[in-house]
Design goal:
Bound molecules: 3-hydroxybutanoyl-coenzyme A
Largest sheet: 2 strands, antiparallel
Helix content: 55-70%
Number of helices: 13
Distance between the termini: 60 Å
């Protein structure tokens, strides 16, 4: 099992790029020196606009993924097979809401308000992870989401604990600890099912068949087609590339699948002694981009549910604001 302790050494940071030329050279030099020394940039520090924009894009997409990610599993809370599984699932879904909150807070330190970020999500302009646009058809999907989706998320997110932007890196420490628990509970739920009936085993295999390729695509496009990777790596935001993480995920997951007793649905999956890694088949990138661009099986449903949830919560936000105003008036009166 991989956990938060999973980490990958940096393979040397690429040199500073032409972006430096559009910013004040002295400030840019200090910023580059901090990045080169593997220092942390904090909200009050000067930073190039492109760095700020990249962080707002990535952190807000990440936050959106956390809160949209509550929906496919949330659908199973009322149908969990036992009180124990229900309690675990409720806790997990609540954790995802918490992750969204830490991440929106981290992004807000860059000067973009939560209302602006949510508006971008609700209007369909902002991206969130492709993986949450697929349906959860059986209880086994809940286990497989824990094992594979959260497993892929941890693989991607542990290196983010060393991101150059302090608030994002610090938020990720707690997120990763909780994701580790999510992954283990998913795997344990599947182990129980695999020791159950033939029908339960078939349900797990069916869920693995449907989620495997989507999880591989979740790491993002191949490095050669990833427009943001080079700059993200240079700035120490991204520490490990999309393809490297995908490979590490495959290598870590194959033995786990063997212990579980499921087959990963890829006839080309095999150990390559020379590379020291598993080879695997081709990912359907057309399907991935169609989903990212709004045409996956559940995009419309997810967005509509999310917008409705936001509307339903309006009275809570109004009440909290009214309470805060009253508190402020009271303390002003007392001070007068
Ligand atoms: N789903 C949707 N869009 C994706 C994607 C995916 N799986 N992978 C990449 N993209 C998008 C990028 O956002 C970018 O779009 P943009 O230019 O409109 O912003 C475009 O595809 C090109 O991709 P790049 O590889 O060039 O982009 P990045 O360098 O930003 O890398 C990333 C993409 C690896 C997802 C990176 O942004 C990242 O590490 N983000 C933080 C982690 C995160 O957001 N994870 C999402 C899952 S969270 C989760 O699963 C919740 C948990 O509870 C399970």
């Amino acid at each position: 099992m991989y956990t938060q302790s999973f980490s990958v050494p940096d393979e040397g940071r690429p040199a500073a790029t032409a972006i430096a030329s559009v910013e004040p050279p002295d400030k840019m030099a200090r910023f580059d020196a901090c990045i080169d020394a593997d220092g942390r940039i904090e909200p009050q520090d000067w930073m190039p606009e492109a760095y700020r924009k990249t962080l707002v894009r990535q952190i807000s997409q990440h936050a959106h993924s956390e809160i949209v990610g509550m929906l496919p599993e949330g659908n199973w809370i009322s149908r969990a097979p036992s009180l124990k599984r229900k309690a675990i699932l409720i806790a997990k879904v609540q954790d995802e809401a918490g992750h969204g909150l830490y991440l929106y807070s981290a992004a807000e330190t860059l000067g973009t308000s939560r209302a602006q970020m949510l508006e971008a999500l609700h209007s369909g302009r902002a991206k969130y992870s492709s993986i949450f646009n697929y349906p959860t058809l059986s209880w086994a999907d809940v286990g497989v989401i824990g094992w594979l989706v959260d497993g892929a998320a941890i693989m991607n997110q542990v290196p983010l604990c060393r991101c150059s932007y302090g608030p994002y890196a610090r938020a990720m420490v707690r997120v990763c600890k909780e994701e580790s628990f999510h992954q283990r509970q998913g795997y344990e739920a599947l182990l129980v099912m695999m020791r159950g009936t033939e029908a339960q085993r078939a349900m797990v295999q069916d869920a693995v068949n449907r989620w495997w390729w989507k999880c591989l695509a979740m790491f993002g496009p191949p490095d050669s087609d990833s427009p943001h990777s080079a700059q993200g790596m240079r700035w120490g935001i991204k520490r490990v590339s999309n393809d490297e993480l995908r490979q590490k995920f495959v290598d870590a997951t194959v033995p786990q699948a063997q212990v579980l007793g499921v087959t990963l649905p890829d006839p080309e999956l095999r150990w390559n002694e020379a590379r020291g890694h598993h080879d695997f088949g081709a990912i359907d990138w057309d399907e991935f981009w169609a989903t990212v661009n709004g045409h996956g099986p559940c995009n419309q449903e997810r967005l509509a549910t999310r917008v409705q949830a936001h509307r339903n919560g309006q009275w809570v936000r109004d009440a909290a604001l009214a309470h805060a105003r009253k508190q402020q008036q009271r303390s002003m009166k007392e001070a007068a």
